[in-house]
Amino acid sequence: MPELTPAAARPRPRLPAWLHTRLPTTDSFAHTRALLDELRLHTVCQSAACPNHWECWSKGTATFMIGGDRCTRACGFCAVTTAKPFPLEADEPARVAEATQRLRLRHVVITAVARDDVPDGGADHFRRTIDAVRGLNPTTVIEVLTPDFNAREAAIDTVIAARPHIFNHNLETVRRLTPMVRSRATYDRSLNVLGQVKARCDGKIYTKSGLMLGLGETEEELFTALADLRRMGCDLLTLGQYLQPTLKHLPVVEFVTPEKFAEYGARAREMGFRHVASAPMVRSSYHADEFTLPGSAVQQLGVAQEHSHAPHYHRDQ
Questions:
Q1: Confidence at residue 27, expressed as pLDDT on a 0 to 100 scale
Q2: DSSP string, 79-134
Q3: How far apart are CA 256 and CA 265, in angstroms?
Q4: What is the pLDDT of residues 150-204, one digit of tens each?
Q5: Quick one: pLDDT band at residue 247, thresholds 50, 70, 90?
Q6: Which of 69, 71, 182, 257 could disulfide-link to 42, CB 3.0 to 4.6 Å?
């Protein structure tokens, strides 16, 4: 198996047929882009060069990225700019809430760059954003995709206290590859974050995580990582193909076939994950609504049940 090294000399491999997609062209794409520009909002779709952003924007949705578009970490897989961040913007939570309302989202995903430059890692900014979104959109399912906050209990408690319905933190890759793939983050710290949330939320928040495949992991390493996530009580799982955003980023070692993704998804379900999305183009927040919350859990979490199964990428008609 080829060695995983940054800026590999070999040329970028051709994409297999199953990764070729047609770019949709709809009025919703232009509408979504115009709204994001108007409200001065960042999205992981743009900043991380997500391959699905054409589809998502054409369906009137985006994953909001708070805390600016400059990250304090430099992960080998991520296209987000690494630079000294600007100060947090006090009105950003209200702008995210307004965008959620105007897009009529029934499931919203809020992520952020790593903000190691502020004492709480941006946790209170998450809290304020969740509160603002819920204030304008009381029936919207709220999912957060957070950095690790350096596993600070106070920071994690701050986000938990705002009662997001889903707390997502990505493991990203297997233990052996973590030092090469992730900047400053550690495998055990990410497990610790998910374990803290599950232990402290009294069963009222679903935990979610995801891994990129094709970085050189073995099947044994993958299944060990999944077992570690289940040991932390992780409920929801995403598995998707890593794609090299630029030649400066880590190369793709393997294109995992759709059949293998289906096999891994079936294995993960057998391991006890409540819901699994496993396919080449799956990303952390892609079709996030399909992680269906059972009706009883929806009522417990305070979300109107008639909205619980609504597609994340559809606007309320």
A1: 63
A2: -SEESPPPPPPTTHHHHHHHHHHHTTBSEEEEEE---TTSTTTTHHHHHHHHHHHH
A3: 13
A4: 999 999 999 999 999 999 999 999 999 999 999 889 999 999 999 999 999 988 9
A5: confident
A6: 69
Higher local confidence (pLDDT), 247 or 110? 110
Q: Could you give the count of Cα atoms lying within 13 Å of 170 in the half-sphere of its Cβ?
A: 23
**Going by C-beta distance under 8 Å and a sequence separation of 6 or more, which residues neighbour residue 27?**
none
b/e 92-104 (16+ beta carbons within 10 angstroms → b)? bbbbbbbbbebbe
Convert the pLDDT of each residue in 30-41 to its tens digit: 677 788 889 888
Sign of CA dihedral 54, 45, 189, 230: negative
Structure tokens of 230? Answer: 């289940």
User: Which token pair is 96?
Assistant: 């995210």
Q: β-strands 42-43, 64-66: how paired?
A: antiparallel
8 Å CB contact between 29 and 58: yes
pTM: 0.83
Element (H or E) spanning 277, and its range? Answer: strand 275-278
- With beta carbons less than 8 A apart as the criterion, state whether 167 and 208 touch: yes
CA atoms within 13 A on the CB side of 282: 26
Confidence of residue 3 (pLDDT cuts 50, 70, 90): low
SS3 content of the chain, % helix, strand, coil (to 5): 40, 15, 50
Task: Fill in the amino acid letter for 47.
Answer: S
State residue 276 phi and psi, 5-degree precision. Answer: -135, 135
Q: Cα(121)–Cα(41) distance, rounded to whole angstroms?
A: 19
Distance CA 302, CA 304 (A): 7
Contact 187, 231 (CB under 8 A): no
Taking a C-beta distance cutoff of 8 angstroms, is the pair 42, 48 a contact? no
